[in-house]
Amino acid sequence: MYAQMVKSTGQGVKSLDEMEPQERAFQERINAGEKIEPKDWMPAGYRKNLIRQIGQHAHSEIVGQLPEGNWITRAPTLERKAILLAKVQDEAGHGLYLYCAAETLGVSRDELTEDLLSGKMKYSSIFNYPTLTWADMGAVGWLVDGAAIMNQVPLQRTSYGPYARAMVRICKEESFHQRQGYDIMMKMAQGTPAQKRMAQDALNRFWYPSLMMFGPSDADSVHSAQSMAWKIKMNTNDELRQKFVDQTVPQAEYLGLTVPDETLEWNDDKGGYDFAEPDWSEFFDVIKGNGPCNVERLAARNKAWDDGKWVREGLLAHAEKRASKKVAAE
Amino acid sequence: MSAPNSAYPDIPEAQPEKPKRHEWPLWEIFIRGQHGMSHRHVGSLHAPDAEMAIKNARDVYTRRNEGVSIWAVEARHIAASSPGDKGPFYEPSESKVYRHPTFFDIPDEVGAM
Ligand SMILES: [Fe+2]
Ligand SMILES: [Fe+2]
Ligand SMILES: [Fe+2]
């Protein structure tokens, strides 16, 4: 998802009887649906895992601004431009909410940023694909934000209080994102033959990368089992992917577009679609840094950070100078 | 009860001898909604000073008319009770059921009260 393949302790899930009293009490609180708050005792693995997951999620929101930022100056109308700008600004806010949630665990935002910029921490694979036409703005809002919503809605119930609260805020805004994307797709799909071709092409290119957002099947993963026991992951990757496909296929049909999967078929027994898996070797390659835009994305973030250095330092120096003057005057 | 301390965890295992960083401080943001309610904690953000904290809060936390008034408090100035105190700290109120109006049986004939 926005946080893909986050590794936990890797030791498998302990039963309550195997736990020390403190850890057992912690797990029982989670089982009872209680929220864990920043100053509560928590296992070191829970803290570490959450920092990775929330950090990766935050980085995805921030890097995720780039593919859409690419089209702000070229939006077809002033209204579309204002809408896209608002959407991209929202994503900056999502990054901020999530960094703040991570900071309650004892890590600073700047540290997380540095780990993103050095490549030590990851962001979602989806943002390493280019946005080639205006129809891609439709496809990103519809599919990418749509896939993100699938994952974020259940995370509103996650066990860690600050993370859950950040998710509540984010989910309120995401539905605007998906709708504005679908609105663009409708316009394009009902437009001239050339516009319709652009819409189909955008769907073709974003379909499988969107399915990859949920990560490879993790039904047998010890990492996922631990995360689910801790309620920092609420569903398996396959469950979410299935839900996404079932929701999205009828939406594509409404647009008169074809999902680029010849095997796609409704399965009455399972009450969902059968569909083709994305190419997981491509996914691992993108994660490793070899996607079409990895280098460009990280370079853009590094440049923004470096170019902003004098502003960060200047404003801090100004604030400190004013504070010391005030002290001197008292 | 331990002395009041910060709202954030103080966990040595998450901070293994990290060098002191020179960053914009963290501010907690409180917003009063449209309908005359008290200010409510909505989240936090970084800013060099109070003025910028309020401007940033306006940009992040009131993008959809969520508020008519903003408070910004530097996070390090917040004193917090400690979670370990939970039981004993709040215990004095547990036995005082008579503080609730439902403790008293008032006959129906008396009317609304
Ligand atoms: Fe977002
Ligand atoms: Fe997003
Ligand atoms: Fe979004």
Helix/strand-derived category of chain B reads: alpha+beta
Helical percentage of chain B = 10-25%
CATH class descriptor of the domain at 22-79 in chain B:
Alpha Beta
Mean pLDDT of chain A: 95
Strand composition percent of chain B: 15-25%
Question: What is the domain tally of chain A?
Answer: 1
Q: Shape of chain A from CA axes?
A: globular
Question: Mind telling me the C-alpha Rg of chain A?
Answer: 21 Å
What profile does the largest beta sheet of chain B have?
3 strands, antiparallel
Would you count the extended β strands of chain B for me?
3
How does CATH name the architecture of chain A?
A: Up-down Bundle
Amino- and carboxy-terminal Cα gap of chain A: 53 Å
Question: In the CATH hierarchy, what is the class of chain A?
Answer: Mainly Alpha
Query: What is the CATH homology-level superfamily of the domain at 22-79 in chain B?
Result: Phenylacetic acid degradation B
Number of helices of chain B: 2
pLDDT averaged residue by residue of chain B: 85
Please identify, by name, the CATH architecture of the domain at 22-79 in chain B.
Roll
Q: Which strand order spans the largest sheet of chain A, edge to edge or round the barrel?
A: 1-2
The CATH homologous superfamily name of chain A equals Ferritin, core subunit, four-helix bundle
